[in-house]
């Protein structure tokens, strides 16, 4: 594996590149670059951790407006089972994941993670999943896409503000690294799972991080300095997101679970940033009214805890489309239920494959809700040209995957119908 040229990159970009590469060599380069990072240790008491794997919001940092901030570094590790699940394998997976919880505080300063299972994983069991779990096979969701589907067994999502932590956690689970933040690794995931390195994905979020990637072809110098996301604006305002309660499955044997959709997409960033003016980008990403009333600011700083979409503006989607341009968020908000957004978006930027993109990761009660909102966002029903239909003409879907994130108590190789 070739490491990037240190002298050609900023420190943050170098660290981000190491996360994208992964493996033992990248980890040791990351450790020598970062020096001793003070990472808070975790807990020996699993009862002190949330029952839901997706319960991250209470332990993540907040921005000045009180919105939850995504950890800076993310790795999605696709996993394939080596043999059929047994009780011994379940115990091994649970022990290995508890090692992570002992090593790192459950927070953005330490590590948050989830393990999710695909419909392909559950297919091996005789029983089907209970009715309370809506987890269909992934499918193409727009006429324009021909995605590859995540048909492996599971995905581990690792997230931390420290690049070193996500790399180290991965190496502790699969490599030769036997000390995680001072905690000995006695059990790892090898023998139960194989990591599918070719499908490994990584990414980042944070004000200023996208602008540090102009060395990647397809990332123009015009990426706004302070933007946390490539397309140039803040995202994930707390009142425009589902709560963790809203996305939790409450009934049945998987009470405490949620479903996860991962849509990996490429963005035509240069065209997005260089073809249109800032007001036109605001029109296409938020709504025409957001541009006319100057509601957004340079990178979304005028919006505080909501994306500012009123019921009136959401109802005006069809008319705005007929008038020429319709906003991405405006269209997607048509998928709200009784005024509430059903999706908890935890998407992040990526330059995997040396191209700018987004791993759009969202949690929702059932995959049917994702599909409904995605259809509203696509807006095939709207009378508008493709180039003015939100951000549709700038995004290209590569992969899709559906997952169940069981509660922590069932996270180790769950059967379809646990007692
Ligand atoms: C390059 C990809 C994408 C970018 C840059 C992007 C960006 C944004 C931004 C800036 C907002 C407004 C701020 C906010 O509410 O957080 C937003 C809202 C939203 N986006 Fe996206 N998005 C992308 C892809 C997607 C995809 C694939 C979906 C799938 C359904 C989606 C669903 C939504 C929803 C549901 C909202 C909020 C609507 C509401 O207020 O109810 N986005 N997005």
TrEMBL record:
InterPro entries in the cross-refs: Dimeric_a/b-barrel (IPR011008), DUF7405 (IPR055828), TAT_signal (IPR006311)
Top-rank lineage group of the source organism: Archaea
Matching Pfam families: DUF7405 (PF24152)
Name of the protein described by the UniProt record: Deferrochelatase/peroxidase EfeB
UniProt organism field: Natronorubrum thiooxidans
